[in-house]
Amino acid sequence: MTDPAWEPTGYYAERSNLARFVEEYGYEEYDDLIPGTEDELADLWGAFAEDTGIVWREPYDEVVDTSGGAAFADWFPGGRLNAVETALDQWAERTPEAVMYAREDEEGNEGSVSFGAMRERVDRLANALADHGVERGDVVGITFPLHPNAFAAALAAWRIGAAFTMVFPGYGADAMGHRFDDSGAEVVVTADGYTRGGEVNDLRAKVDAAIEDAPDVADVIVHDHLGLDGACEAAAERDWEAFVEGYDAEAETAVMDADDVAFIAYSSGTTGEPKGTIHTHASTLVMGNKECRYHFDLSPGDALLWITDFGWIITAIWMLAGAPALGATTVLLEGAPDHPDGDRVWRAIEEHEATAFGISPSGSRGLRQLNEDPRADHDLSSLRVLGSTGEPWDEAGWRWHQGVVGGGEIPLMNASGGTELAGAILSPTTLTPLKPGTLWGPAPGVAANVYDEAGEEAEEGYLVVELPIPGMTHGLTAGDDRYVEEYWSDFEGVWNQNDWVEIDDDGFWYITGRADDTMNVAGRRVTAPEIEAAVGSTPDVSEATVVPVPDEVKGQVPVAFVTLLEGAKREGIEEAVREHVAEELGAPFRPARVHIVPALPRTQTGKIPRGVIESVYLGNPPGNVSTLDRPEILEGFPRHEG
């Protein structure tokens, strides 16, 4: 084996949560954590549910029932619970003064809420919602900055048996309205506004415009966050404080079936109609708790800081379930991570003594440009685990993040899953060695594999899951037919994630991009991220993306779009990039054109929307760009001249 960049020793190999689990439950080999049969699947997920402390009102009859087929697996049938009792109540009773959420905004304003205080906040809101007609099975829409009240609204919905749908506040009104309408929300909980990058955003006005497309929304509850003037006109507006005034700080908990809906989460929708994925009380807890406990090694007294925004799957699985359900603190950084300066994140890690820190690879690269050596200026010694998700790493970026941010001593858990899975398919753990950029392989409990086009096992191909996992969406809001078509129609009885995976000679797994990002250049298959990595490592290039363009001779050719490092000269860049790619990947993969652009568009999660860029370049309709951050970047993008 090539020398790994990190290996589990000492604490990680002997005393981490996963090391303890393996010993206590009698798993002799790491491979035993990857199920090969349905019996092994049930044994593992039953052990995960038990060890991570899920609170049940009535025990389940069995862990999983697949009699209806893998696509419609029934998890923990017979079990009754409410996720709020695991995520909040048990800790409000055991450690009421412990901090559940610590928060700070871009102006440096800080605050925190304990488990005990959060339960009172949640119950007052729950009683008010119930008194205003919200019932078991209803859906509450929530769009909010990263603030404890966003999570209080979600927990309050759970308390009374309602579900919630979480909507990223940076979406345009059309995208937001579609999600409220499709989910069937009748009440929306929001804030008057939020700041990002020093700019004030009027969220109430956006919600007002959004619910014109969601006629079932009758009430909008507004938290006075920034003190902005305005009022909703499309529905009745209710001030949060006035809405909850006079209600008891104790509320009755609705007892739910294990498969009752907990929340609805939507895909970003940059490449088509967003998919409404459906997640249950039991699946939310077992996925979030398992990953936070064994992947990010969280325990009571620890602290998770993840750079994200409210509305993404991370917030529901790791920051609503997950960390709180394990008695850990979740640190909420509202706004941009690099405002007012590039050291904001490092100060937060130091101040809150974060033990687990997560960020996307592109987010890490952005912070690196502002401070090359954060450990020289800040005490990051509290960190025990690093995390990332959302996109592939380049080797240089991974080495900097693990070697500098992590000091070279702690693991970088690079996980890959999706909104429709409520968790990871692939992920390292505290017991796996690491190489730069790797996802190691299947996450504990996940029967992942790689198939070729014919459905045979391969070293390169489609990422699939051969046995169900609890986090798999329980259908789609668009119906079961679309659900089966999206995920179960390519390989019989097998989930196709449609990611493209390569397994190296040492058995380490890497995602090189989406399968539909793969291009065929003169009969040779290559993924866009592979070419992007080579383009991005060219001297003077800051960031890059690559899209396929039709070619009469080669079928397809790559075209690159790059931004340059500050002070770099444009002259000679195109030829330098082409030659560098030829050296790294081979002459056939030289970009046919290299366009220098001022900036690259991104989704609100930081991903570069290749499909949108490809459409704009080829002169086709770009689709829904309201989900993009700064979509105006596309207005000056070059167009194909062929």
Q: Globular, elongated, flat, extended or rod-shaped: what is the shape? A: globular
**CATH class bucket of the domain at 522-636:** Alpha Beta
CATH topology of the domain at 522-636: GMP Synthetase, Chain A, domain 3
CATH homologous superfamily placement of the domain at 522-636: ANL, C-terminal domain
How many helices in DSSP terms? 18
Give the percentage of residues in beta strands.
15-25%
Helix percent band = 25-40%
Tell me the CATH architecture of the domain at 522-636.
2-Layer Sandwich
Tell me how many strands there are. 32
Uncertain segments: none
Strand arrangement in the largest pleated sheet: 5-4-17-16-18-19-20-21
Structural class: alpha/beta
Mean pLDDT: 94
For the terminal residues, how far apart are their CA atoms?
A: 47 Å
Main sheet overview: 8 strands, mixed
What's the alpha carbon Rg, rounded to whole Å?
24 Å
Summarize the entry for a quick read.
With 642 residues, the chain is α/β, with parallel strands linked by helices.
